[in-house]
Fold these 2 entries.
Entry 1:
Amino acid sequence: MPGIKVRTDSLLECKRAGEKIVMVTAYDYPSGRLTDEAGVDVVLVGDSLGNVALGFQDTIPVTLDQMVHHTAAVRRGVKRALLVSDMPFMTYKGSVEEALRNCARLVQQGGAEAVKLEGGVEIAPTIERLTRAGIPVMGHLGLTPQSIHALGGYTVQGKRPDAAQRLRDDALALQEAGCFSMVLECMPWELAEEISRSLVVPTIGIGAGGGCDGQVLVLGDLIGLTTGKLPRFVKQYAQVGQTIREAVGQYAREVRTREYPDSEHAYGTRNSGA
């Protein structure tokens, strides 16, 4: 969809046309601007900012204030892509009224055009209320990082027949509640493909195979900023972390050896008065 402002119904048009949807995370103005200029369809301000940008071990410590702050920064860089923002841990699973207030903050103060919520059948009533209030909702099924302790770690979901059926039921419940799309994370590719075919709304996969209607990756994983072991499904397209280390290392060496600043990078000489 080059050159055209992406909206929630644009993703449905992609699915109908058989066109793959591209989603990437961003956490600040530069990453929002660059991903948008690269032509992605959806920019997600993920609560993965806890791991990627804030140094936490998981997403659970991320607060609503932090999500609003980072979403507003990304908003200033994104012009064309649809901007979706994650609702952080326990900001939408209490009362429906609380969820409505918190989601409204991400839209009104952060500038999000849609919010993403983790969960299935149990949060369908909340999603229905949000969509009635005019807040578009993207769902998230499978490996849901906010429930990582309950799930027993970062493991593939839906491998057993009963677990697979729960995910099928969850996907239909989210669609009926009004989700315009949903993320399917870390589940068998056959199951993700089956769910994708069964739904009218598009699915966006991460670690769920190529049968989904689109794909999402964390920007730090994609460009080589993430440290430590990466999930098997991640493909790195650049090594920006190494580039940054080398550039800063060279700068440090040149300062210490008095190579920088030189005459080319100075405003004037010591005697010029400049």
Note: The CA atoms of residues 268 and 274 lie 5 Å apart.
Entry 2:
Amino acid sequence: MASAIYLINPSTDFPVYYGAEVFARLGLPPAAFMVDLTVATVAATVPEEFDVALCDEAIAPAALDHTAGIIGITGKTSQRLRMRELAREYRRRGKLVVIGGPYASLVPEEVRPYCDILVRGELETVAETLFADLAAGRWKAEYHGEPADLATSPMPRWDLYPTAQALQGCLQTSRGCPFRCEFCDTIEYVGRRQRHKPVAAILRELEDLYRRGFRSVFLADDNFTAHRSRAGEILTALAQWNRKAPAGPVHFSTQLSVDAADHPDLLDLCSAARLSDAFVGIESPSEESLRECGKQQNLKGDLVARIETLVGHGVGVIGGLIVGFDADDGSIFQRQLDFAMQTPVPTYSVNALNAPPPTPLYQRMSAEGRLLENEHEPITPWWTNFFPARMTMEELQTGVYWLVRKLYEPEAFELRMRRFIDCYSDPQPLPRGQGGPRREMSIAAVAVVRTIPRMGGAEARMFRNVMAAARRKPQAQRLVMANLLRYVQVRAMFQPAWGELRRAG
């Protein structure tokens, strides 16, 4: 006889750039920046004879006394310590613990001691067997899933998820990425051949999120524009859907490569579909570093000009920067800052280069004897698991702190915000009165943004100047508020170190 199962998305082991930990810190209801698609999708694979409950620890801690006999835990590398902590506690309480997801698939030997059942690979292809075995009480120690056909991937169980406490919805359009960046572990888990979800299934999931009040949805795609014809098909369908949306359109965000700027027809489709911001892995202005890591798509044109093209077509850019490539010496931090300050990109994530197993970079660092003894410590933005080639570990960590502080000093952030507002052009502005209803989480986000003037005099001046500039370009105001929210989150990430960094200059 089948029993109950409790599915958990653990908290991260440290605050992240795109989290929402700042909500709870400010005394507001805890929030997730984005719904967790994984636990909702896993729940959809569970047969009806099981009672299923979900937990996203971004919103509420896991109930250690939950009555379910089966505990399912998923997670990424950034969640690994919490995954182990939860697994140990539930096993101590006599629960059957199942662990799967990216980290379990990439480093199964690290996860195996903490669970009764290990699921490697994609669950859809082994779900029927796994749950039949659980129901019969004769499970195996491991299940190995193959790459799934996304046409068979089930509708996520958002009815089980606390969607009212998330700022942004999420749906998956594909798995896989054709590029082979040396440091990227995504392709080691989902492969380089991109598999696509049917457009009809994407629209069904969008309808479900829309009914639950979401007007901002992340398109979970490792590289949305890698296959331009496919991206165009999805964007065309989203534009048609948005034109008929009864309570105002949805704005979309995703991940794409900077080379999307080389295709104006594609950017026109992005604008028509209201794909209004995207994470772009810029990584470095150093051509030597980009060649080293295999980021060829970033070498085919002027990076600043390409970013300006994206923003000028209504696609705001969230930039990713990495320091610590073998080509980087102590000058890279100033070079990164000089580059970033030329761009219309308010929000940057800055990370030290890491070598996740089993990436080519990890294999190279292992062969060169450069992996740290504590290589499995938690990864933070300023931490790496191998010895840098041209600087000390202390120089790398201090440099990351310095670069983040410089990027998010109020005057520097204001300059990039004003560049963004000046550069931004939305060919598809919202008709008057079609903004859609405001969710409670959106109202809470505004409350977070309004704490900026209380951070200090320089922050108050920045806030006033940015808001004044935004009033002169109404179509940019939504993304201005989103970037201000990220500013507060980044400042919260680096507290209490922030005051220490400011004193250090």
Note: The chain has three domains: 4-150, 162-422, 423-504.
